[in-house]
Amino acid sequence: MDFTPTDEQRQLVEMVRSFVQKEIVPLETELPPDAGRLPEHVAAPLRRKVEQMGLECWDAPSEVGGPGLDVITQTLLAIEMSQHRAGLYTPCYGLFGGGGLANLYDADEDQKKRYLYPTMRGERRGFFALSEPSGGSDPARAIRTKAVRDGDDWIINGSKMWISGVVDADYGIVVARTGEGRGGLTQFIVDKDTPGLTMTRVIPSLRRVEEPTELEFDNVRVPDANRLGEEGKGFANAAGRLVKVRIPYSAQCVGVAIAAHRLAVDYAKIRETFGRKLAQQQGIQWMLVDNEVDIDTARLLVLQAAQLADAGKNVKREAAMAKLYCTEAASRVIDRSMQIHGGLGVAAEMPFERWYREMRIRRIGEGPNEVQRLVIARELLGGAASIRGEKK
Q1: pLDDT tens across 204-226, in order?
Q2: Which positions are catalytic?
């Protein structure tokens, strides 16, 4: 495989890299350590610069008005966008768009006009509600929220948990049970102000940005015009999107690891202990080498997954491997980089402590790493890896 970027990719990478280093990183010295957004008077001119770069709604396909970047280009840009304090969960503070609601790309034209296009213009915000108190990694069996047909409407009852982005959203994509098993799940677009829909609590967590919430659905009436996709195809559609989403998700971890490693290398060259620079201490040298190996391995895994996705291959295994390795490798890199900085490494004025907290969540988000290991095992062993001996 040849991962040499094209001239166009190099140009885009350089533009984003320059934007992050010149526009975003300097701003963070004045922002609270856990800031999740920029003041509008600061964000507006930066948003115009992104538009001039042609990268607004950067992850949207061309058929809905996005730049139509392939997965490899998205991966390369995700690595660059995440190289700052808030880069893991709010890369560039949302200036490049990317609402994370890719399922709307498959919406009908009326739904696109009402939800997708306003979201792409920044006029609306949405959330994706899959996980429930009964579980999130096995939606085929764990989802108990039910949607029952009532004439031209659906009545939804149940609850959702660990849902991000609800507080500032005005609608959400909700996965509910309309039948049995994997073929019995359907997606619905639900306006947040619909009677019967209640955000019961915000759940404090390690991540202070867009903290997860719990939702209750009490006879929530949704018109069939807000059913997203075919009845019973909600799991297949969501699962297919989630597999590809794991690739740029993993790439963001690589970007944060690169930023942490860069700080550690620079600090090792200037910090003196016991009469010598840290860079001259063999123990420190080996920590930096381990960082380098973890970063390069993670980068190669995520680029391999991206290239196969662009080739139209089934990347369930490769995306799982990238998510598994990138989240764990980046955690190690951040931990070593903190250690090299000593007491300064845990200070709020440095980005490590935020990366450390948020990276811990990454081993759970988008499918826990234990589930990724199961996915890889099933791809490797087929039915023999299933508890019930099922065929793939």
Answers
A1: 888 888 889 999 999 999 999 99
A2: 366
Whether pTM > 0.90 for this model: the answer is: yes
pLDDT of residue 134: 82
Average pLDDT, rounded, for the chain: 92
Domain that holds residue 86: 7-98
Give the separation between CA 332 and CA 286, rounded to whole angstroms. Answer: 13
As a whole number of angstroms, the distance between CA 20 and CA 128 comes to: 28
**Do residue 242 and residue 371 come from a single domain?**
yes
Residue 268: CB atoms within 10 A of its CB come to 20
The count of structural domains within the chain is 3
Tokens of 172: 């959400």
219 and 257, same domain (yes or no): no
Are residues 247 and 378 both part of a single domain?
A: yes
Give the whole-angstrom CA distance, residue 127 versus residue 211: 12
Alpha helices (H) along the chain: 7-19, 40-53, 71-81, 109-111, 117-120, 139-142, 234-270, 282-310, 316-341, 352-362, 369-381
Distances, alpha carbon 150 to alpha carbons 81, 177, 192, 197, in Å: 45, 15, 20, 18
- Cα separation of 270 and 265, whole Å? 9
Q: Flag whether 1 is in a domain.
A: no
Name the token pair of 33: 């350590």
CB 80 within 8 A of CB 255: yes
- Place 244 in a pLDDT band, splitting at 50, 70 and 90: confident
